[in-house]
Amino acid sequence: MIPLNPWEHQNAIKSLYSKCVEAVCDKHSLTRMELDILLFLANNPLFDTASDIVQIRCLSKSQVSAAVGLLEKRNFLKKSYAGNNRKTVHLEICQEAADAVQDGKAAQERFLQIIFKGIPEKEIEAMKRANVQMLNNIHEYLKEESK
Known about the structure:
This protein is mostly helical.
């Protein structure tokens, strides 16, 4: 019998997601980190800095920085500044990345179809609300612990 504790299924979920996006990475010659960054920016337009990616996705600053640099070299990302603020660099997806982003979003949609198959929409919405609260709790705890 499969254990019902969802924390014991994290690796299975990660494996499925990796399988879903693997072909996209291969097709567009992207690392998983590079694709993750493009999709994060595409799916979260209000969070458009490397710091946002590091904080929200709990990724290492050095890995995000390196991947952003490679995406910029390929003209998949463009850096810009807002107004007179020269400290905060905003990241913008370039047209050259459009196909990769489109394919990545399709892979994400396929992933969601697989994991939510057979689950009523009402229950999916409840799961989303609970997930948001859990993530808020995690970020709040991690912020307090780092003080």
